[in-house]
Design a protein that fits this description.
Its cofactor is Zn(2+). It contains seven helices and nine strands. By secondary structure, the protein is of the alpha/beta class. The strands form two sheets. It has a seven-stranded mixed beta sheet, sandwiched between helices. A two-stranded parallel sheet has the order 5-9.
Length: 193
């Protein structure tokens, strides 16, 4: 069985090396929609794959980190990166070019790590991230699965290579959230939301 939760965020980027002249040469933004699809063969104590309310905690926090931010490719021109960080308090750097496809892969890796490090407390079993869909425009989206996120033929994405600005971290429930995620901290779902 699969459940789906839709999130939204506003973000700016440049997609270097793409065919579209405007996209590769000018900062521009999108109203993104992200679909998180979870699957399990089991249902919890309430008859759910995973309570939608639980998706509003850490998973929402991950996606909200990209809201009203600029996302940067860490291999871009260093002077450009420094200027963007100078004039924007909310920024994220990624080890891959900032395309909808790579957003899918990044979200998959972040959310998959979180789920693997989450202690379930309401009978949830076998809950896995099935896929991530990122709608970049009203008519265009990308979808990534586990094989895409951890592909041997695509550029590698490691949690250690994703950086969130201090302003983003300051808005988290726990400023050390990302360090805990990178260091295999066990997160416990709340018994009640």
């Amino acid at each position: 069985m699969i459940i789906r939760k839709l999130f939204e965020f506003e973000n700016a980027h440049i997609v270097r090396f793409c065919s579209s002249k405007r996209c590769k040469s000018s900062i521009h933004g999108h109203s993104y929609k992200v679909e998180v699809l979870l699957e399990s063969r089991y249902l919890d104590n309430a008859g759910m794959v995973y309570d939608f309310g639980l998706l509003k905690t850490y998973i929402r926090q991950i996606i909200d980190s990209f809201d009203h931010a600029i996302t940067l490719f860490n291999q871009d021109d260093q002077s450009y990166l420094q200027e963007m960080k100078k004039y924007s308090q909310r920024w994220i750097t990624l080890p891959v070019n900032v395309s909808a496809e790579n957003f899918c892969r990044v979200f998959f890796i972040l959310i998959d790590a979180l789920l693997k490090q989450t202690k379930m407390v309401n009978g949830e079993q076998g809950v896995n991230l099935q896929s991530i869909i990122v709608h970049e425009t009203r008519t265009g989206y990308a979808q990534a699965f586990k094989d895409d996120a951890y592909s041997d033929i695509l550029p590698k994405i490691s949690l250690d290579d994703i950086e969130f600005s201090p302003a983003i971290k300051a808005e988290w429930n726990d400023i050390d959230f990302y360090d805990k995620l990178k260091n295999s901290h066990i997160f416990t779902n709340p018994k009640e939301i």
